[in-house]
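Rotation project, supervised by the postdoc (A.L.). Task for the rotation student: set up a whole-complex structure prediction and record inputs and outputs verbatim in this book. Inputs entered:
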Amino acid sequence: MRILIVDDDALVATSLRQVLELLGHEASVVSQPGMAIEAHRCKPADVLLLDWNMQGGGGMRVISALEARAVPPAHIIVVTGTPAASLPEEARSRPVLHKPFRVHQLVKMLAELAVLPGSGEEGATHVP
Amino acid sequence: MAGQSRHPLMMLVVVLISFPLLVLPFNDHDSPFSWATHLAAATLLVVYLIGQEIRNRQQLRAFMRFMDTLADWAIIIDSAGKVVHASDAMADLGYVMSEVHGKHWKAACPPGNHQMVQIWLDKVKPGTPGIFGPATVEMEVPGPSRRLVEVSVYRLDSGAGLYYVMTFRDITERRRMEEAMTRMDRLASIALLADGVAHNFNNIFGGIMLNTELLLHGEGAERQTFADRILTGAERGAELCRKLLTLARGEALSLRPVEVRPLVSDLVSLLETRPNPLGISVDLEIEEGLMVQADPNQLQQVLLNLLFNAREAAGVNGRIRIAGRCKENAVALTVSNSGSPIPPERLPLIFLPFFSTKTDSVQATGLGLAVSQRLTQDMGGQLDVSSGPGQPTTFTVTLSAPQTP
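Outputs recorded:
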């Protein structure tokens, strides 16, 4: 799958990209909400791993901007370190990956999305 | 009041007319003034004085009626301590005007308050400015309860005589509401703080966990990278802990006279060792010899935070200006930058923990300004911000000047 990571925390974003590449996905990283729209337009992603708590309130902005597009990403996974109870409805209504997470949790979530319509055909290879 | 401003002039006219008429003719039996003239003069004087008395009493009654419209408990006593008026609200306490009128004020006051009230009355007796309060006290009220009351006592030197006015406002409920709101505020702050802490630490743990898994399955040189990242994450966690602790309980202070310019010069040199891709310039406008009362380490940390912020905000080819000036017994240190202004709706929020406007920075924990404000306040100073279109965003650290030796 083609996965776009939107996260302003470089440590998390870079590590996540490497993990996804090891899993056999094509992953790219943007560090600002504004860049996510641009990146998705140039190279549409199957899955968006969206950090909800980017400084400057990014998550919500990205979602509303993407939904206004002709071709939104097939799936948006909200990635957040904020406790679920403090998340707004817009985030909770989507698949949420709570930081910190283990690789197998990410793999499981991607696998679940892969069987849903609109996902890429490339299968994920598990980290042994 | 018009009546009062007319009073001295009228008095003068009446005395000037009536006094010669009353007195002079008695010394001269050949006077053309008849007894009727004397009577007329005396009548004029008496009618005038009665008129004055009536007007004074009317004014006092109007004042009493006004007091009856208030929710405050109010009582007027005369110079002998007798109740002249008890406001309608006093009836709620069981002191009905018809029952207490003409009695000593102690009849309209629970015994537990007598001593306290007497002290207030002594404070406003003739020869004093005549005003006490408003003061907040706990008072006994009829029944088992005590109330928190805002009390004012003043002397009324009216034309009709000497009176004392006491008003009591029950602020028990207001205080209870205020306390409840403060408690809610605190809970809201704790919730905000907890969310911020959770988010920051979860991000760090996220990085550490991902890299540990990468390390476990990685090979060769890249294992070093993963291990380094784990260390970086752990260091960020430790740094965050340190900031949180500073925010929560402050640090041990050692306030002493500090010369500002060398301290700031060091910081600017430190800043200049960092990469400067945006071409930001720093102007240092602090006179040599400018001293403040501060803890040098804390002041350095505050200014460094402000400088880093300014650098992130200044924009391409931006300018940062650091200035200091002495005003009265205080020294104001300002750090301004030429970047775009902080939106007005965000301005009140920027000192809150975990509020950050930075969009692309690993360093941004949202604690910098909160910690800076805390440190400045610990040193007895304050940290303010001003920002708007057409003016540079300016943070001002105000500290006291050293005590003269």
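Student's summary: The longest helix of chain A spans residues 10-22.
Supervisor addendum: The beta strands of chain A are 2-6, 26-30, 47-51, 75-80, 96-98.
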